[in-house]
């Protein structure tokens, strides 16, 4: 369900905008300041409209529009309306759901005291949209008022949740902006509701707010089943007979694809642990119950009872395994956060993607054209490749370049979770089911890649899935971040390289202790602890402390590849392993999967590959020489692509001069290595 709330400042001369997004694709309209009187009502062929008319006073006039397929009624408010507070409450029945939309306009500031009892009287989900005209730091304002303070206090002690971020909705004629249009909903449904602010005001001084509720997005659930016995038997034959690397990956992909079936379930609200066994036994139970009732058959009734018992058994087993898995991963914060995302994705079954994408002031509706727009956007790079003469030889570390062992492959398989496969369709489970003989064959193939530095094309190909950023306009292509699905073959090989590189960096103390992230015992807490310790010491010695937070713009995408390889060589990463890494970074391709459509294939020249296992540790190598930019007395702490430089001293002039000189060096360093500092994210 999509709703749009808009303070239109007069709707008579703005009706034309209702034919374009976001109004054209929104099921529900919530408009304020329509300036309509009773005789001014207009007709809409797709909406049933409810009015609160303007009654001979400036401004006001509310409209709530619902689909023709929905039914609704105005709820009496039982309190008098005035020029400062207009409220239109509509109870709606739509697609089997009952909920309430409250349309509100309060030009002098909303007084919660007069309406609190009314808002708390409902037993069904409630949405409250409108112009509250309140300022408070909770939604990004630098001031507050008694009315807004009272409103926030009541909101925090109520069963409602504020949906807005700090994105502004109102702009004055002088250009100052603020957030006046608030979106609120019942806490019971807030996990499935999102809102974002449109970039256009459509000739008003308020921008529309678009709200999506995934509860009404009924989609079919798809389940994948694989005949593993047949798959592994055919795979063993391929591993025995095939010697060509590209052909090996392609043939195994065909084996997995031929033995995989996709079953589409009806659009019901299935629990997250529901599997194919539950589905099949439920179908058999229903089938024999119908036959037993139709033919009065005792044998069919016995089969019905048998399948009902099996269904209960599999439901109990599936649910127990699901919750046991959740319990076990709560010990790992990273895994726990991942599971929270999965639980949220289940309740929000379909990602809130837009069917219309805005490009060059035109809306594109065709899914194939949209996917091609995405692939052009994600592959675009203004970075020019400047090759550097590189010498891979020299004193090669023997550990980095020893032949790949079977034990290394087994450890890589154990550390890899069964995530979504890449374009080849081969999952991590396929590797985990291989016999020792087959694993030995895989080890031989990995060793061939390592010794020849030839990376199969399938390993360099990624499928990109655009995922919407929170609180962004989903009709705009830059409101999505790319999530890459890469080859599992490549992931295992990369893990072997990571293990060797990490061992080399730590044993040889190649990476400064202030560079944290993606290395054992160097997490974000250690980075924060160093800064906290420096602040505490400065305070205890009565020194000034100044720090600068730097954020590298599009950090991984901006990595200078030949510069990275040069830095790796300086760190002692030489021989076959650096040849493999350089080959791995070259001539990569991507496709975008969007609304069941696959885009054209595009070459990607920029930075480190998205979704690659080896990319984070290579980025650590790229930042390993950042300390060279620092003046004496200036310290730093790095986590991933976030850099914090700081200085403590009894003299502010001393600190200012040191940091200024350091920042000049930082900008020279970034310019030399083709990086950019993001001003809006740096402090």
TrEMBL record:
Keywords (A to Z) from UniProt: Nucleotidyltransferase, RNA-directed DNA polymerase, Transferase
Domain Reverse transcriptase as annotated: residue spans: 448-683
GO molecular function, one term: RNA-directed DNA polymerase activity
Pfam families in the record: Exo_endo_phos_2, RVT_1
InterPro entries: DNA/RNA_pol_sf, Endo/exonu/phosph_ase_sf, Endo/exonuclease/phosphatase, RdDP_mobile_element, RT_dom
N-terminal signal peptide: none
Keyword Nucleotidyltransferase attributed: yes
CDD domains to which the protein is assigned, alphabetical: RT_nLTR_like
SUPFAM superfamilies: DNA/RNA polymerases, DNase I-like
Protein name listed in UniProt: Putative RNA-directed DNA polymerase from transposon X-element
Organism annotation: Araneus ventricosus
Lineage: Eukaryota, Metazoa, Ecdysozoa, Arthropoda, Chelicerata
């Amino acid at each position: 369900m999509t709703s749009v709330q808009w303070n239109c400042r007069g709707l008579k001369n703005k009706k034309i905008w209702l034919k374009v997004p976001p109004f054209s694709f929104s099921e529900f309209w919530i408009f304020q300041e329509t300036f309509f009187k009773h005789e001014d009502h207009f007709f809409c062929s797709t909406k049933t409209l409810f009015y609160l008319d303007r009654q001979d006073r400036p401004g006001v006039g509310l409209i709530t529009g619902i689909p023709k397929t929905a039914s609704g009624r105005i709820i009496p408010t039982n309190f008098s309306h005035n020029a400062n507070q207009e409220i239109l409450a509509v109870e709606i029945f739509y697609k089997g759901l009952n909920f309430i939309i409250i349309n509100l306009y309060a030009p002098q500031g909303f007084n919660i005291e007069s309406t609190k009892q009314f808002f708390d009287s409902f037993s069904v989900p409630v949405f409250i949209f409108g112009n509250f005209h309140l300022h408070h730091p909770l939604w990004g304002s630098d001031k507050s008022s008694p009315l807004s303070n009272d409103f926030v206090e009541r909101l925090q002690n109520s069963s409602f949740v504020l949906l807005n971020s700090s994105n502004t909705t109102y702009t004055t004629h002088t250009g100052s902006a603020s957030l006046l249009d608030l979106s609120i909903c019942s806490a019971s449904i807030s996990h499935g509701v999102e809102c974002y602010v449109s970039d256009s005001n459509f000739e008003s001084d308020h921008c529309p707010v678009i709200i999506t509720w995934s509860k009404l997005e009924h989609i079919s659930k798809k389940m994948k089943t694989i005949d593993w016995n047949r798959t592994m038997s055919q795979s063993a034959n391929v591993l025995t007979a095939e010697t060509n690397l590209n052909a090996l990956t392609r043939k195994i992909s065909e084996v997995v694809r031929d033995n995989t079936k996709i079953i589409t379930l009806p659009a019901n609200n299935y629990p997250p642990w529901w599997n194919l066994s539950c589905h099949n036994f439920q179908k058999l139970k229903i089938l024999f119950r119908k036959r037993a009732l139709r033919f009065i058959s005792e044998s069919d009734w016995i089969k019905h009872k048998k399948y009902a018992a099996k269904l209960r058994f599999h439901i109990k087993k599936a649910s127990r395994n699901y919750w046991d898995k959740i319990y076990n991963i709560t010990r790992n914060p990273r895994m726990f956060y991942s599971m929270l995302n999965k639980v949220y994705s289940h309740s929000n079954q379909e990602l809130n993607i837009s069917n219309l994408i805005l490009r060059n002031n035109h809306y594109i509706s065709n899914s194939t054209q949209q996917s091609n727009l995405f692939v052009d956007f994600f592959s675009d790079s203004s970075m020019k490749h400047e090759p550097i003469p590189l010498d891979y030889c020299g004193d090669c570390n023997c550990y980095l370049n020893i032949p790949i062992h079977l034990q290394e492959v087994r450890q890589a398989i154990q550390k890899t979770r069964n995530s979504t496969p890449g374009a080849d369709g081969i999952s991590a489970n396929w590797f985990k089911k291989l016999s020792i003989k087959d694993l030995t064959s895989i080890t031989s193939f990995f060793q061939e890649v390592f010794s020849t530095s030839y990376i199969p094309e399938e390993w360099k190909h990624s499928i990109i899935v655009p995922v919407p950023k929170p609180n962004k306009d989903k009709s705009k292509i830059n409101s999505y971040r790319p999530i890459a699905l890469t080859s599992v073959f490549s992931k295992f090989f990369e893990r072997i390289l990571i293990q060797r590189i990490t061992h080399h960096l730590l044993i040889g103390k190649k990476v400064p202790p202030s560079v944290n992230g993606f290395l054992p015992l160097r997490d974000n807490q250690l980075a924060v602890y160093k800064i906290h310790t420096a602040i505490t010491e400065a305070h205890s010695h009565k020194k000034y402390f100044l720090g600068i937070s730097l954020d590298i713009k599009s950090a991984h995408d901006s990595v200078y590849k030949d510069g990275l390889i040069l830095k790796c060589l300086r760190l002692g990463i030489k021989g076959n392993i650096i040849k493999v890494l350089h080959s791995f970074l070259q001539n990569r391709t991507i496709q975008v999967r969007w609304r069941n459509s696959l885009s054209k294939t595009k070459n990607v020249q920029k930075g480190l590959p998205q979704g690659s296992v080896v990319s984070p540790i290579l980025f650590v190598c790229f930042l390993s020489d950042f300390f060279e930019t620092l003046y004496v007395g200036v310290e730093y702490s790095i986590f991933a692509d976030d850099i914090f430089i700081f200085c403590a001293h009894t003299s502010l002039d001393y600190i200012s001069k040191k940091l200024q000189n350091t920042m000049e060096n930082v900008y020279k360093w970034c310019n030399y290595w083709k990086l950019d500092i993001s001003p809006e994210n740096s402090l």
